[in-house]
Amino acid sequence: MSRTVWGPWRLPGAIGIANNVFACAYLSFVFFFSFWPSFAAVTPANMNWAVLVTGAIAGISAIYYAVWARKTYHGPVIEIDERDLSGRVSVIEQRHDLGST
User: Quick check: is 89 in a domain?
Assistant: First the structure.
């Protein structure tokens, strides 16, 4: 197992955890209420179509992944620190193949 090198935008310790918890809570709140209509008497003219658009994009994305992308996706490039490589190279790039057989 190798240690990955953190990028420049990392909040260490409790500050980072608190930031992540707040961001997830806020995202859950906004995501849930973004699908509700603006009016009590909903008609096709004033309906909030966000749920339909989000569902359509999720469905199209799932079909795209199942048909083509899962065969061509190779995963993200990960930089590995030199200390884990016994001094061979300062930083190298590796590709992680996620979910391929």
Answer: no
